[in-house]
């Protein structure tokens, strides 16, 4: 093998090995998941003693907050597992029946769609919480301009999701 080819092979092996630089980032996302778990339980511990005195509207807001945190944690897991398997390395252990059905099957396009769907859901829940606070005597009235921008941002996420879906559909159609 000539010297140029050896240099090229060494460079390509190094470039390929650089994907492992992402591994600490996925480990860091595990810490972020732990943060969400702690915040979830902090909210739960705070509100459970108040359970008998919360109004229906306040209870719904609490539940929406817990759902919001759960969706964010689900999103984080999807990014961690799919990203690691797509960009770093396949999981080599056999998890048996405990392995989520989507693991190993979500490609980059699927990851994008799951990501945007989760962001739209989280944004929608946040927007719903703000709208439910209207008329709640314990909460200051939200600013109309603030609600307008929350709605615009949410609709931007929705439009982005639709555009991503259309682009994936067009790409799949052109591949055929």
Tell me the major beta sheet: none
User: How far do the termini sit from each other?
Assistant: 40 Å
The counted number of beta strands is 0
Based on the structure, what is the oligomeric state of the protein chains? single chain
Shape: elongated
Please count the helical segments.
Answer: 5
Mean pLDDT, nearest integer? 85
| Low-confidence region ranges | none
Count of structural domains = 1
Helical/strand content category:
mainly alpha
* β-sheet strand percentage: under 5%
Radius of gyration: 22 Å
Order of helices and strands: HHHHH
User: Helical amount among residues, as a percent range?
Assistant: over 70%
Family: Belongs to the UPF0114 family.
Transmembrane segments: 20-41, 61-81, 148-170
Subcellular location: Cell membrane
Protein name: UPF0114 protein GU920_04455
């Amino acid at each position: 093998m000539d010297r140029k080819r050896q240099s090229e092979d060494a460079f390509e092996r190094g470039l390929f090995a650089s994907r492992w630089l992402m591994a600490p980032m996925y480990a860091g996302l595990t810490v972020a998941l732990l943060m969400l778990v702690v915040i979830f339980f902090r909210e739960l511990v705070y509100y459970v003693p108040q359970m008998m005195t919360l109004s229906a509207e306040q209870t719904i807001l609490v539940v929406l907050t817990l759902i919001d945190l759960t969706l964010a944690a689900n999103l984080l897991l999807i990014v961690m597992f799919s990203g690691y398997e797509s960009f770093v390395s396949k999981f080599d252990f056999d998890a048996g029946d405990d392995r989520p059905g989507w693991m190993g099957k979500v490609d980059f396009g699927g990851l994008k769609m799951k990501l945007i769907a989760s962001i739209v859901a989280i944004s929608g829940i946040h927007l719903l919480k703000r709208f439910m606070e209207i008329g709640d005597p314990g909460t200051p009235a939200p600013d109309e301009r603030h609600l307008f921008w929350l709605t615009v941002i949410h609709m931007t996420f929705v439009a982005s999701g639709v555009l991503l879906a259309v682009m994936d559909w067009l790409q799949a159609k052109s591949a055929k």
